[in-house]
């Protein structure tokens, strides 16, 4: 089985039909990402298609040493931003990468079907409050927090996807955690 970087080299050499292998390999994760960004099927379909068109147009500039999946997500994120930049709404419209079920599963690790004890009820309430507070964060901080803590992505991968320096990722994570801590205290005790 060919690795992504080998396929990219072949595409650069003129075997553009090899891109079909990359499409087949990455289509599910890309579509899911597009759907989470746009929050509806029609926009997700358009974004998915636009991302592959842009990928085909710029495959010659792809760095084979860079993870193709990160490069592809960057293209999708940039395509999404371009769609909303004209109206200055992309930061407000960029939504969580993960559904509430995925966030809950990540927070709970293993859901229980037994009736919750008093301690579990308090834990569930705190988890729900955490998810609520994460959703209150500005996207500038929320997206790195989710990518780091829920997807366990490395700083370098987050930096690559968001097209920002690693130091900025660390700074946004620290600021995001600080803002989240304050939100948790203020929101919970009001």
Task: Please characterize this protein's 3D structure.
- The protein has ten helices and no strands.
- With 190 residues, it is mainly α.
- It has two domains: 89 residues, Orthogonal Bundle (Rna Polymerase Sigma Factor, Chain: A), CATH 1.10.1740.10; 94 residues, Arc Repressor Mutant, subunit A (Orthogonal Bundle).
- The chain is elongated, with a radius of gyration of 19 Å.
- The chain starts with a helix and ends with a helix.
- The relative contact order is 0.09.
- About 10% of the residues have low confidence.
- Belongs to the sigma-70 factor family. ECF subfamily.
- It holds the Pfam family Sigma70_r4_2.
- One of its GO terms (molecular function) is DNA binding.
- It comes from Anaerobacterium chartisolvens.
Low-confidence stretches: 87-98, 109-115
Average pLDDT score? 79
Principal-axes shape call: elongated
CATH-level-2 architecture of the largest domain:
Orthogonal Bundle
Q: Indicate the structural class.
A: mainly alpha
- Intertermini distance: 57 Å
CATH topological fold name of the largest domain: Arc Repressor Mutant, subunit A
The CATH C-level class name of the largest domain: Mainly Alpha
Percentage of residues in DSSP E strands: under 5%
Major beta sheet, specifics?
Answer: none
Characteristic key phrases:
mainly alpha, Rna Polymerase Sigma Factor, Chain: A
């Amino acid at each position: 089985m060919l690795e992504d970087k080998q396929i990219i080299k072949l595409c650069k050499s003129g075997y553009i039909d090899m891109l079909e292998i990359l499409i087949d390999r990455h289509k599910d994760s890309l579509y899911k990402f597009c759907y989470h960004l746009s929050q509806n099927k029609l926009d997700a379909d358009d974004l998915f298609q636009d991302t592959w068109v842009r990928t085909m147009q710029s495959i010659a500039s792809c760095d084979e040493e860079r993870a193709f999946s990160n490069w592809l997500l960057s293209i999708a994120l940039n395509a999404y931003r371009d769609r909303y930049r004209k109206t200055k709404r992309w930061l407000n419209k960029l939504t969580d990468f993960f559904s509430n079920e995925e966030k809950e599963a990540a927070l709970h690790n293993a859901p229980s079907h037994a009736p919750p004890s008093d301690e579990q009820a308090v834990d569930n309430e705190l988890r729900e409050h955490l998810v609520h507070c994460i959703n209150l964060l500005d996207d500038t901080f929320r997206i790195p927090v989710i990518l780091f803590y829920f997807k366990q992505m490395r700083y370098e991968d987050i930096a690559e996807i968001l097209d920002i320096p690693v130091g900025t990722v660390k700074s946004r994570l620290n600021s995001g955690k600080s803002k989240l801590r304050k939100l948790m205290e203020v929101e919970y005790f009001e």
